[in-house]
Amino acid sequence: MITDSKILKAIFFIQLVSSFLVVVGHFTADVLDFTSPFWVLALNQLSRYGTVLLTIVSGYLTAFSFEKKNPTWRQFFTGKLIYIYIPFLLSGVLYHYLLHNGMPHTREDFINILLGKTGAHLYFIFMICQYYVFAYVFRNWITKKNIPYLIWVFMIVQYVYINYLHQGWLGLTTRHMLPSWIFTFYLGHMIYWYRESILPLLRKKQAVLILFTGISTSSAAYFVMSSKLFVAVHLVFVFACVVTFLVMMVFLLELVDVIKIRFHKGLTYYIYLFHSACLILLNEWVKGQYGDLAWLFTNKWYSLLYLAVVYFCTGLFSILVARLFQNIEAFVKNRAKLQQDAA
Q: Which cellular component appears as one GO term in the record (predicted)?
C-alpha cells in the first residue's frame, strides 16, 4: 500500500538527489573555466534537473501542507519566515561578503540582498517566496477539481511571460519571477492531488512505467548531446523533469523501507542556499595551499573526489543550520504557547 508517509520519504530522497545536482551545476561551471571534456559538459547539462525537480517537490509539499495541516496564515508564514526568509537574507549578506570582500553598507547592497541578486542562485529563493504568498492566497480557489483546467492556463502564462511579457525591471531576470515557474509549481500540486491514481497506475502497468522510463532516459540523453542549453524556462525540459520525477518516485517507493536516511527539516533547502559559499571557501583554501585550481579541475578523478568533499562539507554545515533553525522554531512555538496560556 502506498501511504503518504512512504511518499514523503521518497520525496526526501528526490530532494537529496536534486540538491546534489544543484551542487554539481555550480561545481562543473567552475571546472569549465579550466577544461571542457564531455563528462563535465554532460554533468553540467544533467545538473539542470535539480532546480526543476525542487520546484515540483515544493508544489507537492505545499499542497500536502494545505490539505493535511490546514495552517492559519500565521502558522504558515511564521514557518516560512524562520526556515526560508531569514536564512535567505543571511545568505545574501554572506555572499555579498564573500564576493565583494566586505559587508553590505549601501542602499543598493541591501536592495540586491532583498532581491536575491548577491548570489547567482538566490533568484530561486526570491521567486519561491512569491510562490508561497500566491499559493496561500489562492489555496481555496485552485483545487483538485479545477486544476486539470487551470494547469493549461498556467502553462500558457509561463510560456507567454517568459517569451513576451518579462521586462527585466530592477535587473531581475525571468528566473526571478513567479510567472516563469507557476506551471512547474502547480504540476507538483496536481501530482499530489492525483497521487492515488497516478502512482498505482505506474506501479501496476509495467508497459506505462517502461514508457515513462524510456522517455526519462532518452530525454536526458538528448539534453546531454544537444548543443542547445536547456534550462527551467523551457517547457519541454519541464515536461521531461515531471516524467523523471514520477519515475524516480515509483522506484524510490520500493527502496524507502530498505535505505534508512534520517530526515532533517530544511536540510536540502540549506544545501541549496549555502553550497556555493562552501565551494567558494574550499576553492580559496585550495588556492592558498597549492597556488591554483588548474591541477585539480583538469584531473577527472581529483575533480570527482573534490565534488564529493564539497557536497559532504555542504551537507554537514546544512545539518547544523537545520538544527539551529529547528531550535529557533521550537523556542518561538513555546513562547507563543506560554503567552497564550498566560492570557
A: plasma membrane
